[in-house]
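Example record

The entry below shows one chain as it appears in the dataset: sequence first, then structure tokens.
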Amino acid sequence: MALGDRRAAGSPSADTGQVRLARLILGVVAASTVLLGGVSPAWAGVGLLVAPNVPTSLVVGQAGVASTLTITNGSNGTEAGLDVTINTITLVPSCGTQAISGADCPTGSVDPGVLHPSPTGTGQTGTACQGTSFTTSVIDATDGKYEFTPSAPVVLGPTSGSSATCVIDFSVTVAKVPGRDADGSTAGLQTDQAVFVAGQASDSLAGSASGTNEVTIGPGSASLTTQVAPASVTVGSSFEDTATLTPPAGGVAPTGTIGFAVYGPADPGCTGTPAFTSTKTVAGAAAVSDGFTPSTAGTYRVIATYSGDADYESAVSSCADSSEVVSVNVPAPAITGLSPASGPAAGGTPVTITGTSLAGASTVHFGSAAVPATAVSATQVTATAPAGSGTVDVTVSTPGGTSPAVAADRYAYVPASAPPPGNPPPGPPGSHTGPPLVVTSLSAEFTATVNPEGLATTVHFEFTVALPVLGLTPIVLSARTVEQPVGSDFADHTVTATVASLLPNSIYRVRVIATNALGVTPGGDATFQTATDPPPPPPVEGKTFNAAPVSGLVYVRPPGGKVIAPLTEARQFPVGTTFDTRRGVAELTSATATAGSDRTGSFSGGRFRLLQAKATGGLTELELVLASNARRGCQAEAAAVTAGDRAKRALPKTDLALLHSTVKGRFETRGRYSSATVRGTIWTTTDRCDGTLTSVHRGVVDVDDFLRGRTIAVRAGHAYLARAPS
């Protein structure tokens, strides 16, 4: 149907005879008059025409859209010269079909709420109902039907007069797009209006009529406003963005999603890759992003993007919106302690300053004297005290400002005492181990104070780390730095040494050892823990996997490597890496082709090599590794069996390799004579002289016997031995 095609039932203009009567006359009176020569029937009828007129193209949110209802007296015959009083006017403003007859939208096509008529209407000047007020009210909420009630009776004059037509002015508001398309052959979404009127002529004859109209309705616009909070934060603090959608008056509440993108710290045009994104569902016409915690100072900008929905078009905020700008600043430093908190007035004492937000420190002030900052981290700075006197405040300057003076930053200069007459007798050296400074996860700096006490003295640092072992005493690894000469006077000397190749995430003990001709003096123990590296990235199928220690001591040797190293934190390794879990438990994670479905397992009790190939569907394989002399041991035991045993072709049952496995996902353990494939269970694989034994503790394991060429399903509580050739 063409847009705006208004259809009115009851028009008498082109009808003749019985067809016209059938279409026009809803109330009919038959009158018969007896004349000479026969009976001649005289027919008369009340005919009404009604036409709704709503603009043919609207969008959601339009309000006060001017519309009309036109009602005309189209009676014929005797009633053409009579007045007709209108007693019923109803309107269904939105119906999901063109197939409307009568006063109602057909069942199954009702679509209320698309258009809302104004609460009142007015009779148009120059028509039969001029000046009359009409009140609209809902009379059928299910059908969405309204009734127009006039303030005074609406009387249409005879058809030939100027008062035969009443035009009602009213307006509509577009609340939403149609839920049912009334005209599938026309682009867009259409809804139809159905009007019904009924009246009675002055001779009591009744009639009625209906008419329709069609409107295309498209999505409107919801206003998008945004506000970031707070507008100023320090590095390490977070901010979030709130986006609010305001629908037009009378429009339905928006739905959909809002995506938030944060740009910065140096992207004024928002053209680079976002530093952070977050997508939220609109609820209550608003959405709040997840919090973003920047790690770098600068200016950040947020853009909010509304997805749009059936009723509203999409919308995007502006990069230049001042309410979407966040200033991220470096936090001001603060000092919580000094070590030591005093030193000689001559200066030269290394001082370790602890606190917060110390990263980027360039200068340290002892009172008004400035010295460079060294060995800087976020929580620790080292500086050498200059010469001074009295008690002064130590302050640290960073890009975030200068630390405020507090009681914890006081440094006391100790005046030099008068030297004793002559030199004191020499003695064993004096030594004191200072607090270590952790530089990275693999390195640290040691410091100590040493007095030679009059004899040539050398110094080194000894450091150890204790590694846990399941059920056994921890293994202690030790090392030492190279010897350093410190002179032969009676003064205190500061000694430092930097060490690398430490184990990450491990607790070390360190002490200084000073030696001269009269003795060896240890300086007491100090402890420190190396940093933990960030978590490894996700594994890549067929290339890498991730491993982490669970308990005890686990050793790792990458493919081609000659040195095994303890595993002390989660790390990523290439396929082909060998693990030694005889004294600990390791958790392994391998990738699959399906995102989010990584396989994990815990393994202990043996040595194995981890393999994975895409050709096997990403199956994660753990190949047991035997000691180099394992086979010779089997041969020696086999030679020692009795003649009777040899007659039975028996082989010894000595264990050569063992592996306990608890997994989630598809794994395979491979021994010399069989492999065990699972999809999540607990089992043990043991390589022995007489074969490969698979013992299942939970679930079901498929065992492939290499020599016999068959697969056996082994259930919990059972075991299977794939025998070695005799």
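Notes for this example: The first strand starts at residue 7 and ends at 8. Confidence is low (pLDDT under 50) at residues 1-44.
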